[in-house]
């Protein structure tokens, strides 16, 4: 574990939790940083909506996003289990769990993942989601990394609460509503940009995010302006 | 909890209202079902737009009707804020000082009209935002978490009805089809704005119409668009305009 990189990462995350930050952008940054500081090849964040239905809110790659979606669709897998039990679920070798999650294990293998560790996102007594870490080779997860991974999950939970709200008692409900809608908005903008530039969704997202960063603007604001036709994205880098 | 159970229940309540009227499901049924299910005195829906004038679509009673009119006339109030901010605006007590500071014209007029609390929910799917669902209660008091979640589900139902293509059965491009894993639906909607040269709202309606006409699930049609197995040709008259 590179201590310097670790502290740099937490400082960066804290710096991003400024007033009016963009939750989707933040969670994506968090998954990217998990890959940077932990010994994992991909990471994803699932959040429960107001009905308790999990949604993929961020993923460090398209492969992991599809795998997370697959889990949700088939209602089986370690990330769902972590969400339901509120416990860390560690699977150093997915091949040993083929009987437990037959469809998930096959799908994970096809997408190049061999090990998974899922950390619950806990807010007081409630589990609101899960941070999921994936590795391409089997083998035990370093126990030194576990508290850091859980700290990343906690930072993801805190970021939900940082978003502003009008009514305290209904804080989380509204936060999630806003977060989900901003996720939808960004997907719409990705689709429009991907079609215009004839690229895939991931390339479109990276370009949109890079543009927002370069101009010091919120990702969802850029997405909305692009959809409204008031933002030509001049100088967009692919 | 099973996926979409709340949405399914709320949509059932709305469908019952429509069946009771013997009419096609409309936003009025959403308002009536919300009044029956929640601790509120009335509800109304206004169509809102960034580019053109807003107008009331329906209301369950005279107080609701007055509240919708007031906000559109005064240009301020929870419904206006909910639309511009894109999030729910909950005002459990209209008498509170900060409420009068925020809406100096609307707050006293709303109290005079007979409202003690007002709750406004934007109708929205990402950047598509066709209007706002307003609710009021005679006595001050907040909605609890369950009621709030129900209210948001009523707003989602109203959104889909406003963007409706026919009644859209629950299985094909209809109401029950939006939950769960919907990123492809949103991406496909964005792609269609380019393919068809139309706005997001129309692109979404066209996507649903296609699914409905073909008897396919919305998510499946969207997946085909995203994978570029399916393209929507631009309208002939649109092409004429270009040439």
TrEMBL record, chain A:
GO terms for molecular function: kinase activity; RNA binding. SUPFAM superfamilies: CheY-like, GAF domain-like. It comes from the Bacteria. Pfam families: ANTAR, GAF_2. Keywords: Kinase, Transcription, Transcription regulation, Transferase. Residues 166-227 form the ANTAR domain. The keyword DNA repair does not apply. This is GAF and ANTAR domain-containing protein. It comes from Streptomyces beijiangensis.
